[in-house]
Amino acid sequence: MKALNAIKKSGSKLIFSCKKHSPELLIVGGVIGVVTSGVMACKATLKVNDILEETKENLDKIHEVAADESKKEEYTEKDAKKDTTIVYIQTAGKFVKLYGPAIAVGAVSITAILAGNKIHLKRNAALTAAYTAVDKSFKSYRQRVADRFGEEVEKQVRYNLKEVEVEEKTVDAKGKEKTVKTLKTVTVDPHDDYDISKYSPYAKFFDCGNTNWEKNPELNLAFLRGQQNYFNNKLKVEGYVFLNDVYEALGIPKTKAGQVVGWIYDEKNPIGDNYIDFGIYNIGDPKARDFVNGYEATILLDFNVDGNIWEKM
User: DSSP assignment, residue 298?
Assistant: First the structure.
């Protein structure tokens, strides 16, 4: 069973790798095809003289017979025109047969290059959307902090600053030294317990607007746990899971960012948590605690994605 799972995982990763590098493969293949098409056309050109000479011989024979007065009744001018047309059609067919493979290879190659470029454009659009979502979420978060606590507090949070009371010695006009306390803005020590918990831009509500949602909190918890377990097994077997796959299973609309964001499983070199977490058991979130305890039927799911797995695979 383990061997079968290992083979399945390797096959899944190979398919993923081919999909990931499909633009490069298409473009490189297209360039090689264009060069091959040029070589084939050059080789075909070497045979053009043979076709032209054969055509000339056939036309000369037609003209020779048509000019023979003794055969005017047997071979009329109409017959000569008909045979001439046949010779031209046959010659055209020979040219098509001669250059056809080169043209076909060239057309397929150009199509491959255009297809690879199209995939690149789509992925760039998805990445742009993903980073736009992050930027929008961050700006929205900053604005909420500023609206609730003021611009100064928002600045302190953003730049990791805080005001501390310090004692300074000063000398007055009479030359007497005294100690005064003042407030000074300083950078927070990174080891200090100073963090603002916030949701990621990929967080989604699981509520009455979802077709899988039920009024019974226990049913919702069972459904979400079942999906989380399923995708964790899928992650271990296939080695990767996209966020859009999870969204779709939960009944949440897919997003452009979800096309590139997700999880990667690697026992030897983990780049993330190596497991999928919907944020159901977030003990720091009172709403999540109420959901698990059965007091609340709605929950805001926040996914512990590893980020852009296209770049990390």
Answer: -
